[in-house]
Amino acid sequence: TIITHHWRESDGGGIRTYVVNMVDALRDRGADVRVLFRDGSDPRELQFRGGLLSFTRECYLQLRKLRPEVVHSHNTWHCLLPGFIYKKLNGGRLVHTLHTEPERKLSYPTRLLYQRLLDSCDWVIVSSKGLEEKVEEVHGVTLPRSATIFGGAEERTVTEEEKSRFKGDLGLEGCYPNIL
Asked: What is the DSSP string of 29-79?
């Protein structure tokens, strides 16, 4: 079961695209995936509106009905918290993916709670090493059992000739951009 703030037909930008593509890929491989979301539109999935605590409660209650083996939450505490509660009371695995750089430091009590939520995860996935470092620096937490997964692009080898042509086309000779 996926818990996300942004789903189809929302203004979620990259998060929405990442989650939608991931769900589609999992379903293409035969996985039984349900999505619990707050913002967007999709009559096949479960939308919960209202405040963040109400969203958290409704998602947890739905998790109890669905009884998933894995809960995969995305980006926010209110998506992670129902999975945390479900795992503590019912077992299963918990994965959390961070997509966005934090904007402000957390208060001490909030930081302790957030660290507890992250510590309960079987995996915390980030989209870049820089994001992991920024979360740890700004929020003052550590990401246990973290993995970096680059979304949106398939990996391929880039030849030296392609790098040279790319630099030439963009006037970057003598510069050292990361080309993935």
From this structure: TT----EEEEES--TTSEE--S-HHHHHHHHHHHHHHH--SEEEEESSHHH
Could you tell me the strand order of the sheet in which 146-148 lies? 46-47, 35-39, 2-6, 70-74, 93-98, 123-126, 146-148
CB 132 within 8 A of CB 126: yes
Positions of the chain with pLDDT under 50: 153, 179-180
105 near 135, Cβ under 8 Å?
A: no
Closest CA to 96 of 111, 81, 113, 112: 81
Cα separation, 80 vs 64, whole angstroms: 15
pLDDT digit string (tens) for 143-174? Answer: 988 888 766 545 567 788 877 777 777 666 76
- Averaged pLDDT of the chain: 87
In degrees and rounded to multiples of 5, residue 63 shows phi and psi of: -60, -40
